[in-house]
Amino acid sequence: MTAEKKEFAFSTADFEAVRTKLKKLTGINLADSKDSMVYSRLARRIRALRQASFLQYLNYLDNHHQEQEEFVNALTTNLTSFFRENHHFEALEAHLKKHPKSTKIWCAASSTGEEPYSIAMSAVNAFGRFNCPVEIIASDIDSKVLHTAKQGVYRIDQVRDLSTEMKKRYFHRGRGNQDGKVRVVSELRNMVHFQKLNLMDDSYSIPKNIDIVFCRNVMIYFDKPTQLTILQKIIKHMAQDSLYIAGHSENFAHVSQLLTPLGKTIYKPKRG
């Protein structure tokens, strides 16, 4: 732990207790380097609840289920942007053009919505219309980011890298007290169904026969045994000849019995 004076005492034991609790609730493995992040984010909760210490807060957490949601929301990372790792969306658009049929897509870590809306934009681009045969389910463990995603409101600088045509087609520019913001058009918002889901749950309230799963830069937060368990559950929801799209930093060599690489961190689940 750092030696600087802190508002609340924060020992190595406190950090380990937080890490253990988060792993139990979500399966996420916090790296040793995340101690400062843990302190800054949870200190706000300790202050808000008028707790005296991390130990007192963790005891409070055990007895107040609602606070567990705030705890998870505070510690989950939500780094995202529109068309992040754009080659995946190019591949998606090409796939939908090649297979213009009813398609179910699951975005398994939707965060604040940029990824599922990028999926929706790719689908509209592929079919040339909003009313296209694509069903998009977007889930996340964090209830606060899901609320943001459903609203579909973003700072204007978050869409600066999109073409003028894309911005005109898919976003309304805010006026008055919404100046400096944009909102995803309702036709696009209506294409995405958001729901809360913990990948550590025993089962998922997700339809079967999903054609494409986007689960990018998620598995890096889990240890390898947990990755295996989660992948086995996800694959149960996937259709024959489906695609699993991972993040650039993820490597699945240790689960080669489950996934066949197709290139550019796109995989095909193995059957039997």
UniProtKB/TrEMBL annotation:
Domain of life where this protein originates: Bacteria
GO molecular function annotation: protein-glutamate O-methyltransferase activity
GO biological-process terms attached to the record: methylation
Enzyme Commission number(s) from the entry: 2.1.1.80
Pfam families (alphabetical): CheR, CheR_N
Function: Methylation of the membrane-bound methyl-accepting chemotaxis proteins (MCP) to form gamma-glutamyl methyl ester residues in MCP.
Name of the protein described by the UniProt record: Chemotaxis protein methyltransferase
Organism field: Brumicola blandensis
